[in-house]
Amino acid sequence: MKSRNAQLFLVILLLMAGASYLRSESSSGKYHLQKSYNVDVNGSKDFVWGHIALDSGARRLYIPSETTVKVVNVDSGKVVGEIGDTHGVIAVALAPELKRGFTTNPGDASVTVFNTETLATIKKVGVNKSSFILYDSFTKRIFPISTTTSVLDAASGDTAGAVKLDNQPAGAVSDGKGSVFVALPQKSEIAVIDARSLSVARSYPVHEGCIPWSLAYSSEASRLFVGCQNGLLTVLDSNTGETVTPISVLCSHVGDSVFDAEDKLLFESCVEGVVSVFKEIEPNYYTIVDTLKTEPASRIVAFDSKTKRIFLPAADFETAWLNGHPNKHQIKPETFRILVYAP
Question: What is the DSSP string of 180-223?
C-alpha cells in the first residue's frame, strides 16, 4: 500500500511539473456588463462587423459598417459622425498624435485617410486588398496587412514601400520599437517585419497545435500573446521567438487579443461569446482571473485605457429560409449593438 501511494504521489508530481505556468481561479466577477447601446449601422443582413477601434483621449469608437464607418461617443453611445466612401470597410487604425485615421476597404482595394477631429476624408490610396490595418508609432507608418502589404506614410498618406509575406496573414501588432509582428495561420508562424527597412527580418514558429490568429504585445516584458483559432493561447518571447508557455483558453476560436499594460491584464475574446481575462504575475507566469460570458459572434474587443472598460460588437441573428428550408443565419434588423463591460 505504501508503495502504491508513493507511485500515485510521484504521478501527481510529474503532472504538476508538466503543466503550463497557469493557475486557474474561479471567476471573480471583476468585469460585468455595465450597459449596451444600439448603433444604427449601414450593414445589410449579411453584414459581418469588422475590427472596431477606440480613441481613449477623444472618447470615440470607430465601427466599420460595410460602406461607412460610424463614429460613436464611447460614454454616451451616441453617433457623432461617420466616414463615408469606405467600400467594404473591415478595420480602422488611428494615429492620434497626427490627427489621422485610416480605414482598410477591401471592397475597392483602398485605404481612406481621414482627419480624426473633423472626420473629413483627406485622401484615398489604392493598396492590395487587406482585412486588417495597423499603425506603427515608431516609424509613423500604416500597414494595411496583406500578402503584399502596401505601406503608407501616416502623415502624408503617400506610399512608402511594400512588404511581401509568404502567406495570407491574419492579425498583427507593433512593439513600438521598430518591429511589426504578423500572424500567418497557414504556416503556423509569426512573421517579424522590420518597420524601417520594410523587410521580413525573421519568423517564429508557434507552439504545435496553435493556428495563430490574433496578437497582443507587452512592451515591458517583451512578450507576444498569440491567440489561436483552435482555442489556445501561446506566449512567446518577442526577442527570440521562444515559446514561454502554451495556455488553454477553453474556446473553439480566439477572435481578438488585447493587453492592458498598466494592470497587466490580457483579454482573449472567442467567437462563441466568451472573454477570458488573464493576469500577468511575471513574464513567464499567467493566471486566469475572470471568464466573461458575452454573446455569440462577439469576437472583436476594444479596450479603453482611461476607464478600463472593454467594448464588443453584438447583434441578434435569425434564420433565412429558401424553398422552405433553412438557408443561412443573418442579422436581425436594428439589433446591432455595442456591449460595454466594466471592472
Answer: EEEEETTTTEEEEEETTTTEEEEEEEPPTT--EEEEEEETTTTE
Distance from the Cα of residue 265 to its chain's centroid: 15
Q: How many residues does the chain have?
A: 343
Domains of the chain, first to last:
20-48+206-343 (2.130.10.10), 50-180 (2.130.10.10)
Q: Is the dihedral of CA 86, 87, 93, 98 positive or negative?
A: negative
Best CA proximity match to 235, nearest among 248, 186, 176: 248
Query: Are 53 and 301 contacting, i.e. CB atoms less than 8 angstroms apart?
Result: no
In the chain, the amino acid numbered 309 is: R
Please, what is the Cα angle at 114 between 109 and 118, to 5 degrees? 150
230-289 residue pLDDT tens:
888 999 999 999 999 888 776 878 999 999 999 999 999 998 899 999 999 999 999 999
CA distances from 160 to 16, 110, 135, 174, 264 (A): 51, 15, 13, 17, 34
Residue reference for cell 511539473: 17
Specify the pTM.
0.88
Dist. CA 113–CA 65, nearest whole Å: 16
The per-residue pLDDT for range 66-97, each reduced to its tens digit, is 889 999 999 999 999 999 999 999 999 999 99
- CA dist 21 and 248 (Å) reads 11
Distance separating alpha carbons of residues 60 and 69, to the nearest angstrom: 12
